Amino acid sequence: MSKTLDILGGLIEMLGPPVKVDHRRGWATWWCPFHPDAEKAGSSKKPNFGVHIEDGYWKCMRCGGSGGSLKSLSHKLGADWRPDPGAYTTQVVQDKDPTVPYLSEAMSAARSALMRSTAWEYLSGERGVQPNTSLIYGLGYGLPRPKVRKKTFKMAQESSLATDNGWWMWAEGIVYAEPPTRPVTIQVRHLRDKAPMKYQTWGRLMQPMGAWRCKPHTQMVVVVEGMIDMLIVAQALRHRRMDEVRVVYTAGATPAYTMLAWFTEHPEYEYLLIPDPDDAGFDWIEPVSEAIRKGDGKYEVRFPPGDLDPDEAVLSGWWPAELT
Ligand SMILES: [Zn+2]
User: Less crowded by CB within 10 Å, the N or C end of the chain?
Assistant: First the structure.
């Protein structure tokens, strides 16, 4: 989790949602909790209380209250302080305009290359993913140097997806866009030996991956850690014609703040958490279940049998009792 999101999360717990988050300047603003700012007594008619979201420094432009950390802010607010439960919609200024939505040309190239790629050999041959499943999710193959227009390449450079020498960092991996049309997030599940990490993400993370398939009639959402776990569970759900159940993945054991917020904001679904059978899987349960509880949602945890990963377990015939 990035430090900025960490600080912002702490502030939202203390003060409620900010009036404005300016990622470009690194500040978030609230009506001041120490003077009647919300009544707009100030001549500016703008909130006067600002916090630097990279270091936690806070200051009111009107009453002059200030401090150097979230801890000092919490202390000054006192034990009886309760935040305003969110009367405002937050205005968010991005640090730069996202370029990922302009990468559809590159995504199309990646998609048409999948079936003839080493990534498909891996997905289908070793992991049991079927062509239909891959089509539904619009999976692609990370072409090291996709043939795209200059403009698209420039956008990819700005998103830090393409490097200056023309090589794309998603090279040889499985590429997934969330949502598949007009994506805000592009993510790769790396397959290269020397990849820097298992997953790499470009654009904005707005929700768990796969959440675009949740619809008003969705009743239950299965939550897993990995992309291939999601694909295999989705495939099994389709075979069982369980259209009221969807599955999402968090791309590893430490979900981003924005993903956790999504679980809190969607208590209308029942959740079934299927962790990986390792220590990281145990650690993963906590933040996800906490986020669900925070929104008064319901969840259950189901471990796959033996030491199998969720996808291996499902392919070997196991099926969670909650989904029958
Ligand atoms: Zn003030």
Answer: C
pLDDT tens by residue, 271-301? 999 999 988 888 899 999 999 999 999 999 9
Q: How far is the CA of 275 from the centre of ligand 1 (A)?
A: 46
Q: Give one DSSP letter per residue of 32-74, joined into a string.
A: -TTTTTTTT-STT-S--EEEETTT--EEETTT--EESSHHHHH
Burial bucket for residue 132 (CB in 10 Å: 0-12, 13-18, 19+): exposed
CA atoms 123, 126, 131, 137: torsion sign: negative
**Helix ranges restricted to H, 61-140:** 70-77, 104-113, 118-120, 131-137
Report which of 214, 116, 231, 117 is spatially closest to residue 176, judged by C-alpha positions. 231
pLDDT of residue 190: 94
- The SS3 assignment for 179 reads coil
Residue type, 315: L
Domains contained in the chain, CATH given: 3-93 (3.90.580), 100-203 (3.90.980.10), 211-317 (3.40.1360.10)
What pTM does this model have?
Answer: 0.71
Digit-coded pLDDT (tens) for 26-71 = 889 988 999 888 776 555 678 899 999 888 899 998 898 899 999 9
In this model, does residue 136 exceed pLDDT 80? yes
Please give the structure tokens belonging to residue 45.
Answer: 């008619």
User: In angstroms, what is the span from residue 47 Cα to ligand 1's centroid?
Assistant: 9
Protein residues placing their CB within 5 Å of the ion ligand 1 = 32, 34-35, 60, 62-63
Q: Is it the case that residue 86 has pLDDT exceeding 80?
A: no
